[in-house]
Design goal:
It contains ten helices and 28 strands. With about 375 residues, the protein is an alpha/beta fold. The longest helix has 14 residues. The protein is globular.
Length: about 375
């Protein structure tokens, strides 16, 4: 894929909004949450950068990042194991001591890394939005409009009773953003910021340094809300599929959405592949009595029962006579014989013994934590 002839640095915040999915982030970062049978959430922004020709990427960590480090390794699976540029894992500690308090504090902490980059522009992205996007198009619009900051957004239905951590954008007559609402009490179709933006390194340095001197931390509230009029802030509309992971219920719904062929084709576009750590597992094996309907089955699985409308990760074992419906079963889970599993999310390496009945509901799935035994 062709790229704009400018040096661009990609920065990924691996732990933004962890608290909203505390069940899944108790022992990991937002970026290392498993998704779609074989991926982690960080695979999507990483792949977006690589597919856009961006070969220098920094990942800003925070806490519980052991599994993230294991997943990313040297960056080889994303073609980021390079002598120049490549993948860099950046520490979580702020200049004043302790864990950073917000996006601006995190940027101030790792600024020496940004300063040494030859990039002219910086793209910031979180991990809680699943989407595939070509940042070259965003950068072209950013330069054509001579914007100070360009925010990537999508038109989507928003319901304050269900959705969390949403930032709603309001546009003026000249198509600049003149209003920013954080978690407003409203519902309806809105312009939702996808927590992705482009900014010049020079302007970002000015903002980060000024914010550090004023002891402020939130980019959204301090810059986009309180100092909106000081900058020309434009929006780039992402018109393709996206989904935000901002609760355990939305994680479940997002996982189930992958069972729809149109959704899979929209997200996993051959022109913009999503890369992940190679597992080198054997193909999935199916017993003589197995029955699979409308499900995603990853490699390394052993299925001897029935699986319907479910996402099954790598290395899962499902015993004879067991029925798994409407569930998300993460890597290494072992389900015994003659079980009935419905609307359940199991984290990694869960063990469910024979003859167990476990059930949640479509609107409120039950969750079994990592290494649990049932």
């Amino acid at each position: 894929m062709s790229s704009v002839n400018y040096n661009v640095l990609g920065l990924i915040f691996a732990s933004m909004h962890d608290l909203y999915v505390s069940e899944l982030t108790k022992q990991r970062t937002m970026g290392s949450i498993p998704f779609g049978g074989r991926y982690r959430l960080i695979d999507f922004p990483l792949s977006n950068f690589v597919n856009s020709g961006i070969t220098e990427v920094g990942v800003i960590t925070k806490a519980n990042y052991g599994s993230l480090l294991d997943h990313l390794g040297s960056g080889r699976d994303w073609d980021l194991a390079r002598k120049k540029g490549g993948l860099h894992l950046l520490p979580p500690y702020s200049q004043t001591g302790g864990i950073y308090k917000g996006r601006l504090d995190a940027l101030n902490n790792i600024w020496s890394f940004v300063e040494h980059s030859k990039a002219q522009y910086v793209i910031l992205s979180n991990c809680d939005v699943v989407a595939t996007i070509d940042f070259n198009d965003v950068l072209r619009q950013h330069m054509d409009t001579k914007a100070d900051i360009t925010l990537v957004y999508s038109k989507a239905y928003y319901d304050s009773a269900k959705d969390k951590c949403a930032t709603i954008l309001q546009f003026g007559e000249d198509n600049t953003i003149n209003g920013v609402l954080v978690d407003p009490e409203m519902s309806g179709e809105c312009n939702q910021w996808l927590d992705m933006l482009i900014i010049s390194k020079e302007l970002l340095k000015k903002i980060v340094m000024n914010s550090a001197s004023q002891n402020v931390y939130s980019f959204t509230r301090e810059i986009l809300q309180n100092h909106n009029s000081e900058y020309k802030i434009m929006g780039y509309e992402h018109k393709d599929f996206f989904v935000r992971i901002d609760s355990i219920d939305n994680y479940y719904l997002a996982s189930k959405m992958l069972l729809n062929k149109d959704t899979r084709e929209a997200l996993f576009n051959p022109a913009r592949p999503v890369y992940t750590k190679v597992g080198d597992n054997a193909p999935a094996k199916y017993g003589l009595e197995s029955n699979i309907k409308n499900s995603l089955i990853a490699d390394g699985c052993m299925i001897e029962g029935t699986v319907e409308n479910s996402v099954i990760f790598r290395g899962v074992k499902i015993g004879k006579g067991t029925v798994v419906k409407d569930s998300v079963i993460m890597q290494g889970t072992v389900i015994g014989n003659n079980c009935s599993i419905s609307s359940i999310i199991t984290d990694k390496n869960v063990e469910i013994s024979d003859n167990k009945i476990l059930a949640g509901s479509e609107t409120c799935p039950s969750y079994l934590p990592k290494n649990a035994k049932a």
